[in-house]
């Protein structure tokens, strides 16, 4: 991966998440473009989340889920190799004053439909029932045609065929997208992802962040703002 990413050059850095930095690369063998996620030593996630993502992505196949091409563990180096998504993540379009102009209503509708199909597959149609637990704009990647793909399954939970909910003492995810019952009681279910999708849907339609903005006419969040139909 050193040669593929030009020794993890800053020029090839695509972004950084909870796992660590992500770099653009090109395989020497066939010149295929890839994205390499490298575990940071300061990462809040670790080997457990890495293994979780590898296992899940090897078993899940859907056009609206990002594809993992391989992985690497050598000493303290832990890396995941993904298909390269040239348009990066949804948040880079939604919340950028210039880029958001490229998202007309047809593109936004197509993105919403694609995320919905991917989520339906995870909850109902795959061999495993999967609860993602961290659905948000930065975890929605866009291909060359602006088709969305759900990514980052490090925090996802696998449930049995007849299991639709679970409980955990370790609440993980991103505040602003987590369902209240999950934050308060650690109870997660397919409904948790539906709640996150609802927040994501509001952000796609409005082009505004759920967190970080103050709406003086309502409850200081996008959800509180749109709950008053006069504001939306």
TrEMBL record:
- Taxonomic source organism: Pisum sativum
Q: Please give the GO cellular component terms listed in this UniProt entry.
A: plasma membrane
Under which name does UniProt file this protein? Variant 3, G-type lectin S-receptor-like serine/threonine-protein kinase SD1-1
Query: According to its UniProt record, where is this protein located?
Result: Cell membrane
* Mode of membrane association: Single-pass type I membrane protein
Where is it chiefly localized? membrane
**PANTHER family registered for this protein in UniProt:** CYSTEINE-RICH RLK (RECEPTOR-LIKE KINASE) PROTEIN, RECEPTOR-LIKE SERINE/THREONINE-PROTEIN KINASE SD1-8
Query: Which InterPro entries does the record match to this protein?
Result: Kinase-like_dom_sf, Prot_kinase_dom, Ser-Thr/Tyr_kinase_cat_dom, Ser/Thr_kinase_AS
Q: What range does the record give for the signal peptide?
A: none
Protein kinase domain boundaries: 8-232
Keywords, A to Z, come to:
ATP-binding, Cell membrane, Glycoprotein, Kinase, Membrane, Nucleotide-binding, Receptor, Serine/threonine-protein kinase, Signal, Transferase, Transmembrane, Transmembrane helix
For the keyword Transmembrane helix, the answer is yes
The family note in this entry says: In the C-terminal section; belongs to the protein kinase superfamily. Ser/Thr protein kinase family. In the N-terminal section; belongs to the leguminous lectin family.
Q: Which processes are annotated in GO (biological process)? A: defense response to oomycetes
Which molecular-function annotation in GO is an example for this chain?
Answer: ATP binding
């Amino acid at each position: 991966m050193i040669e593929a990413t030009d020794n993890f050059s800053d020029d090839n850095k695509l972004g950084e998440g909870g796992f660590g930095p992500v770099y653009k690369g090109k395989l020497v063998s066939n010149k295929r473009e890839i994205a390499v996620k490298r575990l940071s030593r300061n990462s809040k996630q670790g080997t457990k989340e890495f293994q979780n993502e590898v296992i899940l992505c090897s078993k899940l196949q859907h056009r609206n889920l990002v594809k993992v091409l391989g992985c690497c563990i050598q000493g303290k180096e832990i890396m995941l190799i993904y298909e390269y998504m040239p348009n990066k993540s949804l948040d880079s379009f939604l919340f950028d004053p210039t880029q958001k102009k490229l998202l007309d209503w047809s593109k936004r509708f197509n993105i919403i439909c694609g995320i919905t199909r991917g989520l339906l597959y995870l909850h109902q149609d795959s061999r495993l029932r999967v609860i993602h637990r961290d659905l948000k704009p930065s975890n929605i990647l866009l291909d060359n045609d602006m088709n969305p793909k759900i990514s980052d399954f490090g925090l996802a939970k696998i449930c049995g065929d007849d299991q639709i909910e679970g409980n955990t003492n370790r609440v993980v995810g991103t505040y602003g997208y987590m369902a209240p019952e999950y934050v308060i009681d650690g109870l997660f279910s397919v409904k948790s992802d539906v709640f996150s999708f609802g927040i994501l849907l509001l952000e796609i339609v409005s082009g505004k962040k759920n967190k970080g903005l103050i709406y003086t006419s309502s409850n200081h969040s996008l959800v509180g703002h749109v709950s008053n139909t006069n504001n939306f």
